[in-house]
């Protein structure tokens, strides 16, 4: 039950991601793609800084005691957004979504299957393999 | 040109999956807010440097566009917090499929109604079928997780 609630929450968060992309596209056309991307990261960083200062000052220092590779998530985010803004005008939103999602699903199953990047190992069983096939069929239909 | 763009898009998707995995791990070690903060702070620094040196000037700036166009970041923050909270609890694959389902559902709505100043692309039968398939895939991954949890419980 708790799993289902978490998955539902993530689903709603995914809907928000599409709203963000829907806002970012027209904004990038007007002010430039890098500026639009900056607005996302800057506002996000400032809001979260406020949250941290007032609620969890003590935990912030722990970030810098972690292995370095664990801190690279912040480099990957801009790579994704910039690829998105380069591709959308060239191939359209639909094709952009299909390409991104294919890469995302395949990579996430690989990460889980081999326990890469410190993730817990979750072998790709029949259910998950079938799910991947169904997702590719769904993407092809889009 | 097209194959290069498509390869870039696959890379972008893989990068996104790697990021949720790394941030999930980091979030489990430090905290959800700390991990999300690091991602946004580093992203802001990197994109500022890129914008400062490589952006060609435009007539409109971030300060002159209508303010509602700037609230995208709020959705990004909510997404980041949700994904960092969820990955250690349900796994990268299940979290990713849930995100994809939400993303596609909402993008179909935006396309169908032409929300946020985007072009109208009405729903057709193949898009409905596609949504149904995705819900099926999400259920399968959920079942796979449940089955594994039962096995672990039985082993103890």
From TrEMBL, chain A:
Pfam families, sorted: DMT_YdcZ
Any one annotated GO CC term: plasma membrane
Chain segments annotated as transmembrane: 34-55, 67-87, 93-111, 123-141
Keywords linked to the UniProt accession: Membrane, Transmembrane, Transmembrane helix
Name of this protein: EamA domain-containing protein
Species of origin: marine sediment metagenome
Organism lineage string: unclassified sequences, metagenomes, ecological metagenomes
Automatic annotation (TrEMBL), chain B:
Transmembrane region(s): 36-56, 68-87, 93-116, 128-145
One Pfam short name: DMT_YdcZ
Gene Ontology CC terms, in alphabetical order: plasma membrane
Keyword Lyase: no
Keywords annotated in UniProt: Membrane, Transmembrane, Transmembrane helix
The keyword Manganese is assigned to this record: no
Name recorded for this polypeptide: EamA domain-containing protein
Provenance organism: marine sediment metagenome
């Amino acid at each position: 039950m708790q799993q289902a609630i978490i998955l539902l929450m993530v689903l709603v968060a995914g809907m928000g991601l599409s709203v963000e992309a829907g806002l970012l596209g027209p904004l990038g056309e007007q002010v430039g793609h890098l500026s639009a991307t900056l607005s996302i990261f800057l506002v996000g960083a400032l809001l979260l800084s406020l949250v941290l200062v007032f609620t969890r000052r003590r935990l912030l220092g722990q970030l810098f005691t972690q292995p370095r590779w664990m801190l690279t998530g912040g480099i990957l985010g801009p790579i994704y957004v910039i690829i998105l803004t380069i591709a959308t005008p060239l191939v359209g939103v639909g094709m952009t979504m299909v390409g991104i999602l294919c890469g995302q699903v395949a990579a996430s199953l690989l990460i889980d299957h081999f326990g890469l990047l410190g993730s817990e190992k979750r072998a790709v069983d029949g259910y998950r393999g079938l799910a991947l096939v169904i997702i590719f069929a769904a993407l092809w239909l889009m | 040109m097209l194959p290069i763009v498509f390869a870039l898009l696959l890379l972008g998707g893989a990068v996104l999956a790697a990021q949720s995995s790394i941030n999930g791990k980091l979030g489990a070690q430090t905290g959800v807010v700390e991990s999300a903060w690091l991602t946004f702070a580093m992203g802001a620094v990197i994109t500022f440097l890129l914008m400062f040196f490589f952006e060609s000037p435009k007539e409109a700036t971030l300060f002159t566009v209508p303010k509602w166009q700037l609230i995208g970041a709020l959705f990004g923050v909510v997404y980041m917090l949700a994904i960092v909270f969820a990955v250690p609890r349900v796994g990268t694959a299940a979290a990713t499929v849930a995100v994809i389902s939400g993303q596609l559902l909402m993008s179909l709505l935006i396309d169908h109604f032409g929300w946020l100043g985007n072009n109208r692309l009405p729903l057709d039968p193949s898009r409905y079928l596609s949504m149904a398939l995705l819900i099926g895939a999400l259920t399968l991954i959920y079942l796979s997780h449940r089955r594994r949890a039962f096995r672990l419980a039985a082993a103890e």
